[in-house]
């Protein structure tokens, strides 16, 4: 008799616990019903990169003095600066310049230290390709002006996550309980 009562007691406790967990699950669902979606319909919609976004590097050939500072400050000595010394003008003459974005880590050092500001970070992030060797950009590819997401009329620009309504990035108030439940 005693064991049956004890069994019923344990069963009741487990049922209450299960109901509590189901309730927590519903609370998470309800919490999300108040939020705006933070996914976007890429490539028809694109998020606007932040002000200091480090995307594809833009290079201005005419401003480069072939000093090779960008090579020395690069953690992997990546930029390839090909130049010749012109005796008539007693100056280095830049022949070609390239950066391989298949290897670049977009740290921005080259941009930061270039003495003539001929390098700059753009907001371009769509660099995917089937052949990684195509990511080795010469001065012509590097000199192409970036396409701004805001100015592209073919897509819808979505402002960054930081501009979403307040509270959208905050965690659930009961997330700790849910984590405990999962573990
Ligand atoms: S640091 Fe600037 S100026 Fe010097 S080689 Fe590199 S890109 Fe050219
Ligand atoms: S961004 Fe960094 S890794 Fe890429 S070329 Fe410049 S210094 Fe090198």
Describe, in short, the structure shown:
The protein is of the alpha+beta class and 183 residues long. It has helices at residues 2-33, 69-73, 109-113, 139-143, 175-182; strands at 45-47, 57-59, 80-86, 91-100, 119-121, 136-138, 156-158.
Would you tell me the overall average pLDDT?
86
Name the ligand types: iron/sulfur cluster
> Span from first to last CA?
35 Å
CATH architecture of the largest domain: 2-Layer Sandwich
Total number of domains: 2
Give an overview in words:
- Its main location: membrane.
- One of its GO terms (molecular function) is iron ion binding.
- This is NADH-quinone oxidoreductase subunit I.
- A hairpin with a 4-residue loop joins β3 and β4.
- The protein is elongated and about 110 Å long.
- The protein is α+β, with helices and mostly antiparallel strands.
- The protein has two domains: 35 residues; 114 residues, Alpha-Beta Plaits (2-Layer Sandwich), CATH 3.30.70.
- The C terminus is likely disordered.
- The chain has five helices and seven strands.
- Strands 3-4-6 form a three-stranded antiparallel sheet. Strands 1-7 form a two-stranded parallel ribbon. A two-stranded antiparallel sheet has the order 2-5.
- The two termini are 35 Å apart.
- It binds iron/sulfur cluster (2 copies).
């Amino acid at each position: 008799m005693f064991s049956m009562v004890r069994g019923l007691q344990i069963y009741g406790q487990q049922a209450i616990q299960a109901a509590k967990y189901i309730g927590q699950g519903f609370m998470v669902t309800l919490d999300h019903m108040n939020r705006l979606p933070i996914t976007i319909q890429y490539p028809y919609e694109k998020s606007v990169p932040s002000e200091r976004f480090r995307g594809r590097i833009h290079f201005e050939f005419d401003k480069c003095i072939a000093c090779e500072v960008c090579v020395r400050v690069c953690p992997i000595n990546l930029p390839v600066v090909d130049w010749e010394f012109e005796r008539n003008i007693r100056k280095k003459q830049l022949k070609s310049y390239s950066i391989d974005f298949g290897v670049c880590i977009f740290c921005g050092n080259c941009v930061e230290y270039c003495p003539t500001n001929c390098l700059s970070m753009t907001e371009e992030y769509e660099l995917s390709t089937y052949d990684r060797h195509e990511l080795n950009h010469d001065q012509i590819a590097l000199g192409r002006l970036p396409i701004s997401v805001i100015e592209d009329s073919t897509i819808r620009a979505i402002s960054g996550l930081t501009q979403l309504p307040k509270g959208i990035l905050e965690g659930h108030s009961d997330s700790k309980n849910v984590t405990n439940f999962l573990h």
